[in-house]
């Protein structure tokens, strides 16, 4: 019996958490303008004490029922969102897969050239490109990018930084502290599926800025449940031109002078790398949304079960109370 | 010398001739193949494929690549990429991009590529005349440059279809 009582208390205290709009214990009086949630609180409180009140029980039964309805519809919505995210993930993953040879072809070339230059100059003006999604409800992908950028800006006070935002959600996270560093905000990047032409537009916007190096922050898609924030550093054009000897092992086939060719090559490789980053982030966003919505659906159904339990218990006690009244009334006659 | 085999791409007849006489024999002896990746942002036309030779339109002129070519970076101009694989020729039209020839592999990264036979002759002709009229009516430098590029691409397509 004691164990039962304890577990019941448990359920009650949990259900209070679920309802959880008011931490204050309500006073036991018939407050006319209390909300449905408060009524539920009162009812659950009341159940553990000996007091019996029909009106409150009715109200609370109704409150529990409406609460159950809303939880059920929330779970329907999150389930639908999960399905949508899963379908979108399939699409964007296929896109990413078919673009792999394109981006990978450049990587082997860059490994032997650009990455050597990368470490040589670390001071100067840096441009941070924050790749975030436009829509929320996608787990931690956006806040992870924001946190990484904040950490960098907090630790490194020597260098000049500017922030270019690609996607809407990064702005919300950074504008309180680093609003004065914003240079460009681009939104609706992920509305249409990521494509190369659009990436070139973003890249042109980046080339308009003055910088010694660019750091692209994005989520690398490892698999459907794990996305890793990655910082991709690309040295600026001036630095590349200064260290042009890195390209000596290659012959250049172009009708223009070598500086112009190198600029073209630089812009091309930048666009390809940005394209890769945008695709990775788009895939990560959908994957994170899928698992976030899956969790939400699971939580909602858990909540629904608990509410069902509370509801049935309440109903039972109403019936018991009524029976007692009828019997004792009959006995009194 | 096997290492430096940049050939200028002549007419079709002579090209077959050159292949037969010179390079193809040498390649056959070493039984070596060229590892080629030919990709656009949306698709891979060849992925780590073993081919005999690839010819692409570098900005300086047509350029043929055989195995063990000297490392090269080439800017592409609008033109035809020919992949020669077991005696068969596959032709694609590319708009622009870059080609990277390294010691062990060749990557052609084109912004856009279509099969040559998928090009519509009439549409090309129409596009060409549209771009030509756009040059004349262009008000500022940017739109004139855009029209100029359009003319270049369309006339390259036209000559590719005619050859």
UniProtKB/TrEMBL annotation, chain A:
This protein's membrane topology, according to the annotation, is: Peripheral membrane protein
**What Pfam families is this protein classified in?**
ATP-synt
Q: What are the entry keywords?
A: ATP synthesis, CF(1), Hydrogen ion transport, Hydrolase, Ion transport, Membrane, Mitochondrion, Mitochondrion inner membrane, Transport
The GO cellular component terms are: mitochondrial inner membrane; proton-transporting ATP synthase complex
Task: Give the organism's phylogenetic lineage.
Answer: Eukaryota, Rhodophyta, Bangiophyceae, Galdieriales, Galdieriaceae
Q: PROSITE patterns from the entry?
A: ATPASE_GAMMA
Record carries keyword Transmembrane:
no
Question: Where is it localised?
Answer: Mitochondrion inner membrane
Q: Name one GO molecular function term.
A: proton-transporting ATP synthase activity, rotational mechanism
Keyword Transport assigned to the entry: answer is yes
Into which family does the record put it? Belongs to the ATPase gamma chain family.
InterPro entries according to UniProt:
ATP_synth_F1_ATPase_gsu, ATP_synth_F1_gsu, ATP_synth_F1_gsu_CS
Q: What name is this protein filed under? A: ATP synthase subunit gamma, mitochondrial
Automatic annotation (TrEMBL), chain B:
- Where located? Mitochondrion inner membrane
Ranges where the ATP synthase F1 complex delta/epsilon subunit N-terminal domain occurs: 34-113
Q: What class of enzyme is it?
A: hydrolase
Q: Name one GO cellular component term.
A: mitochondrial inner membrane
GO MF entries: hydrolase activity; proton-transporting ATP synthase activity, rotational mechanism
InterPro entries on file: ATP_synth_F1_dsu/esu, ATP_synth_F1_dsu/esu_N, ATPsynth_dsu/esu_N
Q: Which SUPFAM superfamilies match?
A: Epsilon subunit of F1F0-ATP synthase N-terminal domain (SSF51344)
Pfam families from the xrefs?
ATP-synt_DE_N (PF02823)
Q: Which domain of life is it from?
A: Eukaryota
Assigned EC number: 3.6.3.14
Q: Does the keyword 4Fe-4S apply?
A: no
Q: Which UniProt keywords apply?
A: Hydrogen ion transport, Hydrolase, Ion transport, Membrane, Mitochondrion, Mitochondrion inner membrane, Transit peptide, Transport
What protein family is recorded?
A: Belongs to the ATPase epsilon chain family.
- UniProt cross-references to NCBIfam families, sorted A to Z: ATP_synt_epsi
Q: HAMAP family recorded for this chain? A: ATP_synth_epsil_bac
Question: What protein is this chain from?
Answer: F-type H+-transporting ATPase subunit delta
Q: Which organism is it from?
A: Galdieria sulphuraria (Red alga)
What does the record give as the organism's lineage? Eukaryota, Rhodophyta, Bangiophyceae, Galdieriales, Galdieriaceae
